[in-house]
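Priority: medium. Attachment 1 of 2:
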């Protein structure tokens, strides 16, 4: 999303991160369903800041409010909550990975089927949505958005099966990619996780109400109990009779996204039964063992690099200091008074704590490097603050491949690791040394056997390895079309 003319971004550190996909929340059977949903979405705001929406059902009618902007700016007043009545509600926070930043693409999406109303919120990305969309349009479907989630609605609507659950399963069997879904009907609430379990989905309970959400931190904010993760390939239905589970897909080895542990999830969440905070500290310890460095102090790149930096410092026996202080009260943009002060932009959001940097050899710990522009600015900031040496250690392998499963990743040629080798990356950011955690080290940090000799998990690590666990139909067709256009433009080749 581009800044308006005459403004410049004041979050240059954040702009060079992989943007979180989306977050979903649903609750069935609560007098405060909408208020609880708003609170849950607030806890999941880190997963998407462009738009938010809530759909509620009061036993007779569905009520929906969708907005561009933050949950706290739109779903806090009594008037808004009262306008979404009912004991059942689902919600969504969005960062656009498929479809434009437009109100028509905000979720939950709602459709009126022959069987009644159907609202759905989706976290993930369908890798054959464009292919399916063309087929649906050719058969007469009329789309109201550019979101891949609407493809699922049309597949349900055009299914030849009779009841809604069979229609849903029929639709899901036609799609590729990653999805965690929360849907609301007049009969109950539905939760779905794709067969590979790429995206997380948790089940909780508050008194007699059941909850589905992307992360357990959304349960904590309303005082709910975490029950378990929804399993890969599982469909749960929740209604007045309780909860039922169905697994209609063939068994396959799960491939949950490893980046949930590296960056996406909040550190106070449990993902896959593991504390995200503890995993990130173990990642830092692995990094210190793999790539030790002779420095005076360990400094995290705020805020996502902090747990790994703590683990690094403890393992290395080095002091830990907050050498970069973040200003949390700066908005997304700042009116630029003159061209002469443009270079102050980076310091509006972050500032060097120079009394802990000057005259010292430091190691910066960050969770990842995407384009490299952030790391370059951080290294410059540290040198300006008087650091005699600036080393960087990255708490994940090099991000060298695009993600097609609900993460907004630059194309490969814009990724620093897609452009340079290790020495080229070090030279680009200007660090004295640079090292990335190995893939094996990342797996070691994410694997904590409990004595039952269970197998180590296999994650989706395609952004590091290029090993994509599903078909990429839309991407393949796009590449084929691009190749044909190049041949037409250059027939002599």
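Attachment 2 of 2:
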């Amino acid at each position: 999303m581009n800044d308006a003319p005459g403004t410049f971004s004041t979050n240059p550190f954040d702009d060079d991160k992989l943007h979180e996909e989306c977050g979903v929340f649903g609750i069935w059977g609560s007098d405060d369903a909408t208020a609880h949903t708003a609170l849950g979405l607030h806890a999941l705001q880190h997963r998407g800041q462009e738009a938010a929406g809530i759909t509620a059902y009061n036993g007779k009618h569905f009520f929906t409010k969708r907005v561009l902007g933050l949950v706290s700016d739109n779903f806090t007043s009594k008037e808004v909550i009262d306008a979404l009545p009912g004991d059942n509600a689902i919600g969504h926070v969005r960062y656009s990975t498929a479809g434009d930043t437009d109100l028509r693409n905000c979720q939950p999406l709602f459709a009126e089927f022959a069987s009644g109303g159907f609202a759905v919120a989706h976290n993930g990305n369908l890798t054959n949505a464009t292919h399916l969309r063309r087929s649906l349009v050719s058969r007469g479907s009329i789309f109201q958005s550019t979101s891949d989630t609407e493809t699922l609605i049309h597949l349900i609507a055009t299914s030849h099966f009779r009841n809604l659950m069979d229609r849903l399963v029929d639709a899901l069997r036609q799609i590729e990619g990653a999805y965690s879904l929360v849907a609301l009907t007049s009969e109950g609430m539905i939760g779905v996780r794709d067969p590979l379990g790429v995206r997380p989905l948790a089940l909780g309970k508050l008194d007699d109400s059941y909850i589905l959400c992307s992360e357990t931190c959304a349960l904590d904010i309303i005082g709910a109990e975490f029950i378990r993760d929804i399993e890969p390939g599982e469909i749960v239905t929740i209604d007045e009779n309780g909860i039922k589970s169905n697994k209609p897909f063939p068994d396959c080895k799960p491939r949950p996204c490893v980046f949930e542990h590296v960056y996406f999830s909040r550190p106070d969440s449990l993902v896959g039964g593991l504390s995200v905070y503890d995993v990130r500290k173990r990642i830092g310890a692995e990094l210190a063992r793999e790539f030790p460095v002779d420095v005076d102090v360990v400094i995290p790149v705020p805020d996502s690099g902090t747990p790994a930096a703590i683990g690094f410092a403890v393992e290395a026996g080095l002091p830990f200091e907050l050498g970069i202080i973040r200003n949390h009260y700066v908005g997304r943009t700042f009116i630029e008074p003159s061209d002469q002060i443009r270079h102050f932009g980076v310091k509006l959001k972050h500032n060097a704590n120079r009394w802990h940097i000057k005259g010292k050899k430091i190691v910066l710990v960050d969770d990842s490097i995407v384009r490299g522009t952030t790391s370059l600015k951080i290294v410059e900031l540290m040198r300006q603050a008087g650091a005699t040496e600036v080393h960087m250690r990255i708490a994940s392998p090099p991000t060298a491949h695009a993600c097609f499963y609900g993460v907004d990743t630059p194309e490969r040629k814009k990724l620093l690791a897609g452009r340079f080798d290790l020495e080229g990356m070090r030279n680009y950011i200007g660090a004295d040394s640079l090292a990335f955690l190995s893939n094996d080290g990342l797996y070691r940090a994410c694997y904590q056997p409990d004595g039952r000799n269970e197998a180590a998990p296999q994650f989706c690590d395609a952004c590091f390895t290029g090993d994509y666990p599903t078909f990429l139909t839309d991407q393949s067709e796009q590449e084929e079309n691009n190749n044909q256009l190049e041949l037409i433009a250059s027939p002599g080749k």
